[in-house]
Structure formats: C-alpha cells, structure tokens
Amino acid sequence: MSRYVIALDQGTTSSRAVLVDSRGQVVSCVQNPFPQRYPQPGWVEHDPRDILSSQLGALTELIVANGLTQRSVACIGITNQRETTVVWRRDTGEPICNAIVWQCRRTAELVERICGDADVAEQVAERTGLVPDAYFSASKIRWILDNVPGARQEASRGNLAFGTVDSWLLWSLTSGAVHATDTTNASRTMLFNIHTMEWDPWLLDLFGIPESMLPEVRPSSGLFGVTDAAGVMPGIPICGVAGDQQAALFGQCCFERGQAKNTYGTGCFLLMHTGDEPRRSSHNLITTVAASAPDAPGPEYALEGSVFMAGALLQWLRDELGLIDDVADTSAIARSVPDTGGVYVVPAFTGLGAPYWDAQARGTITGLTRGTTKAHIVRAAVESLAYQVRDLVAAMEADAGVGLAVLGVDGGASANDFLMQFQCDMLRCTLRRPACTESTALGAAFLAGLSSGFWKDKDQLRALRSAGDVYNPLLEDERHRALVLGWQRALRQTMTCEKGNPW
Question: Taking a C-beta distance cutoff of 8 angstroms, is the pair 494, 361 a contact?
C-alpha cells in the first residue's frame, strides 16, 4: 500500500490540502477559498470558523477523492499565513471576535504609541529581529484585549487562548488537546525572543498581554498531536508546523548558510538562510527563525525581505496599460527585442521598500525615445523584477556576511524563462527552479515526514528536489555593469531624496 504525507497549506485567501508521495511529488490538491472581510478602510479580517471549515473541507475532500485510510497517511504537516491573530475561549473553543489579518493596519497608531521611543524600538528589534510594525501579532492581541468587551478580564482569569493560524488549526484538529505553535510562527508575533527562544516577559509587559494566553512553542519538526476533530480521520499524527515563507525555504532545500529562495508572487518574498546565529540587519530587513530538521543541534535563522511589486506589475501591464493580453506572453515579448533600448521601469507604485526605503517614491518609466515600442516597455518591466531582487540580495549579503550560494525560485512568475535567465545574470550565481514549485506545501510535508521517519534525512530530500531547471550566468561583465548602472540611475530619478542613499 502506498503511503503519503498530507500538507495543510492555509493561506490568506484559500485553504489547501496537498497529498505528497514518497518521491516528493504532489499527487493531489484540493483548494477552498473563503471570504475576506473589510469592516473599515485599512481593516482586514477573517472569520476563524471560515478558515477552519475551508481547511477541514479541503482535507476531507482530499481523503475521500484519493480513497485514503489511516494506514495510508503517515502524517500531516501544517503551513500557514503568518501573523494573523486569533483569540478564542478555552472552555468552548469559540473565537471571541474575527481574526485580525496580517494585512490589517488598524493598530499602526497603537504601535507608534507603544514603540515610538527610539530606545524602546531598539529593544524590540534587538529581542525579536523585527521592525516594530502593525504587521506583527503583538499589537493585534492588544487591540482585541482593549476593544472586545470583557476580553481583558477573561484573559486575566486564564480563560482566553491566543494563536496564529497554525495554533488555531492545531487546537481544532486535536479537539482542544494541543495549544502550541512552532518557533517560526512564534518569531512573527513580536513577543518572542529569538535569542532565548522563549516568550519575552519584557515584551509581554510592554504590550500588556498575559502570558497565560500564549501557546507552547515547539520546534518545527516534531510530534504536535494527533487528529481528533469531528468529521476528520482520527489518529493521524501532526508532525510539522511552519509559517509559509519559512516552509518554502525548507521546501526549496535551503538548509545551509548562504542559500536562499525567492517566491515570485504578487510581490517577492526573499529569505536567506544565515546559519545558527541571528544576523541583525542594517538595511531594515527582518531577522527571523528558520524551520529546522529534527536533528538540528539548535535554532537556525534567516534574513527576510520583500519586493512590493512583482506579479502585480505584470498584471498592471495587462489590466491598466493593455500592453499584453496574458502575463504568460511577457517572456516571448521581452525576447522579441535585443534589449530595452535604454528604457527602465521603476515600479514604486506604493513607494520603495528594502533596501531603498522611500515611502514617497512613485513609479517611473525612464529613457523613453521616439523609437520606444511596447516590447521595450514590457521587457523593462520584466527586468525591473530582477533588478529589485538583485538589490535585495546585495543587502542580505552585506547583512549576513556571506555571498549567495544558490537561489531557489518558485511562484507564478518563476515560469517566465526570460525573467529567470535575466535574474541569474543579475545575481551572477546559479538559479534553480525545481520541477515542482509547490515549495510551501512541500516544506510542511518535509518537516512532518522527517519527524515521522517517512523520509530519512535532508540528503534524501535534496535528491528528491534535484530535478528541474538550472540557470547559469551568461551575461558578460561589462554589459552587466552597464545595465546595473542604468538601473541605479533610474532609481535616483525616481527617489524623492538622494541624500545619503547609495542607489
């Protein structure tokens, strides 16, 4: 009888259940969307019951469609949207309000009030590796305690439980037997000390959050509990948990210092493994805990940064400018001209993030001439993704003190062959696109499978992920320098203030 690992991939807009076989291949996948809630401008919420029902529905459908039995499922791994905050009653398991989603900005003023002092902000950053922001869970919990009637009193009595989405799923799948999270999700709450690997009393006091609300923190690969929820196949061990981006890093087999993965989605999420020591960023990158195999001697870390506009830029070419009919056409269109004719696109539609940090910058197209064609603009837009990732990698290399050894890629735009080669040329390193780009789900499956013995070790996982496309740099050094200088010139023309900025 064939045996499998199931990965539950709970995302911001949908929940997926993914069946993975012993070869590391995705055999089957079920995806269920769920409603997004926007009660006020800048607010984003999910009903935790919608998250749960969509995830359990996907799991049940996967089991039925593939005729799975308890004997054929070795274990379950969970990966999830990070930072989204759920608070529920311990006695009934009922949420006390909607989940506050990672995108929600309602607590921005609260964070400024609590962390506005420079010394306080420095302490938060030093302990957590994070830049104080409403993005993370701490201020969301505080908001719930301050604004949901009776919440603070109930929390002080020990009656409330907090969890990121992984904790909510664990609690529900085990019928309340397990209130836990893993180190990667804990490191995104702004309450977890990434040096001591424990909840930090100073941070809890700063945000006014009772420690009794918090889940137990465990390694990402290990036994968390067994399924016991109504309507779900009972007795399946849950053996791995990781936040989505850390799961993708693990799924790309970036196990060593200097290895990195980049997910080309709406934006880009770039994570670089930095080894067994947290590296403090001087470019406002995030220091985060990486998911580790069960035999790791201690915690491992990564640097994380993001590019705001990636796939969204290509969609803009299609939906707003009408230059393309299909995003998939951009590779062929870009190759239809030998270069951009000196055109550069800087997609600062919502400002520029790391490593530039100019919130007031706005998008520009530079170098236009009478001979500029649609193809030149499309090619320049595609190239801009690679330039931004190059600059982010340069910042990471400076922070990590190590050069990029290999970049693993996934996400929708990774299918663009022109972009992948140009990205490789800009980074001057090997780029690998695995045959299966389901890196997030595979990361959760790998973490669970290693813990349960379904897979032997990391070397076996590397062998499973060896198939795919490999890109090596082809561009001459002189041409590379000229293109990068042109990009830096375009950045200077875009940014609102050049003083002290190396770009």
Answer: yes
